[in-house]
Amino acid sequence: MKNWKENILAPLIFTVALLILWELACRVFSLPATVLPTPTAIAKAMVQYWPAIWENSLQTLMTTLLGFALAIVFSLALGIGIGWSKFIYGALYPVMIAFNAIPKVAVVPILIIWFGIGTIPAIFTAFLISFFPIVVNVATGLATTEPELQDVLRALGASKLDIVRKVGIPRSMPYFFGSLKVAITLAFVGSVVSETIGANSGLGQMMLAAQAGFNVELVFAGVMALAILGIALYAITALIEKRFTGWAFRAEGIG
Amino acid sequence: MTQPGAPLVVLDHVSMTYGQGVNAVKAVDDLTLTIKKGEFIAVVGPSGCGKSSMMKLISGLKPTSAGTLTIEGQPVKGPINKVGMAFQSSNLLPWRTAVDNVLLPLEIVEPHRSRIGKEKAAYREKARALLESVGLGGFTEKFPWQLSGGMQQRTSICRALIHEPEILMLDEPFGALDAFTREELWCMTRDIHQARGVTAMLVTHDLREAVFLADTVYVMSDRPGKIVKVQTVDLPRPRDLEITYEKPFQDLVHELRSYIGKH
After folding, report:
1. What does the pLDDT look like over B16-37, one tens digit per residue?
2. Which string of b and e fits B176-199 if b means at least 16 CB within 10 Å?
């Protein structure tokens, strides 16, 4: 594999070194496990509580992905609309910015009032928190179509729809997939936040319960599970991006 | 069908204004000229003199503010697919190979638009042949970033030609190329014009380029663009690059230069 030193060796060494440092710090300063458990203690907790962690991870994964899927569908439509027409842009943009500025934690109680404690508020929070970057990126991709290229096509009698279909949408795909990497992590944050406030299952809820029972190892085991899931989701999205917009990651030309 | 040599594009006292009211800017003023079928005209002038506006008028992208503009006797009211355009930047779609870029206009223009789905292979063959004719035979399946600047520009010109337009419009198409590549593309453009009998309009600020390629050179003044000089180039065709070093050619260039920046 090319660049395996940068891509595999370097992050591996860094992560392992970080864990060793953590372990040593805990032991040298004899920190109580209720403040900061050692990585080995966390690993032990992960093994011990594996069935619970697994089940709750699946729940969080499910709410994240459903919210994310909703966000993709909704933002593609909205992004194309905004990129298509200056009028739609002018109408929707201020409201969207205002909406995006609202901390989503503040919305969760409302969602709970509407849908009750459970899975649906988590899905909606994931959706609400992740749609904005996708919309902005898709709209930017569409709005920045080169005017000369539009002239070339318009002179041929191309309709606006033709130009958007043949040029605008393919052109905005790298922006779209780029934003998915941001959006998937945000969706994940959204579902965990919502689970922490009001849910019956999921990693957020599990950690909240563990905290109430002073099971600090399990809280940290939950943090670890979140981190691992986060990396996995990001990596899968990045892989999909490479697969679909390989042309945007150009190699060296011949001059 | 217009016969070669007969008037194809006629501009009669045409003006064009951008914007409205106090912000109105007159881009071109009182243009009167006739482009004959098969003629190669060049429009030269200082930056911002409305050369490109003139192109947009003829292609129907912008409406005239005054005067009449006809193509084949028909008033131009909007885009007509009788033109093919190429610009200084090749504007190729980076997700399409050279041949797929060339095919793009056929996905827009009727009757090809409804046929291209069924007859994809035949159309691809046509696009490949066109690319081959400009020396890109081995590069048809390459992506734009795998092509040099000159090759990208050749591809862009092929894209302008694929639907067999009446008028080929070139807006400073060689401006970003190095001197040697530029001369190669002059010869390519000369050969395309010769072989296909297409009417061509070249916007440029390179006087040598204008004289080498054109039958008639129009010199435009600073904004608002007016025609200040019409120069017929009667150097015999086919022209060889050698003539650019000879006296008659250089005299013409010199003569034209004296009209730039003067009123």
Report:
1. 888 777 778 888 888 899 999 9
2. bbeeebbbbbbebbbebbeeeebb
**Rounded Cα–Cα distance for residues B221 and B218 (Å):** 10
How far is B213 from B238, CA to CA, in rounded Å?
10
Report pLDDT digits (tens) over B36-95.
Answer: 999 999 999 887 778 888 888 898 888 888 889 999 888 988 887 888 999 888 889 988
What's this model's pTM, rounded to 2 decimal places?
A: 0.79
Name which of B53, B8, B1, B3 is nearest B199 in CA terms.
B8
- CA closest to B94 among chain A residues: A247
Taking each helix axis from N to C end, the angle separating A39-48 and A10-28, rounded to the nearest 10 degrees, works out to 100
Strands B40-44 and B216-220: parallel
Chain B residues interacting with chain A (CB cutoff of 8 angstroms): 56, 59-61, 79-81, 83-87, 89, 91, 93-95, 104-105, 107-109, 143, 145-149, 159-160, 163, 169, 171
CB A56 within 8 A of CB A205: yes
- Best residue in A146, A151, A162, A250 for a mutation probing chain B (most B CBs within 10 Å): A151
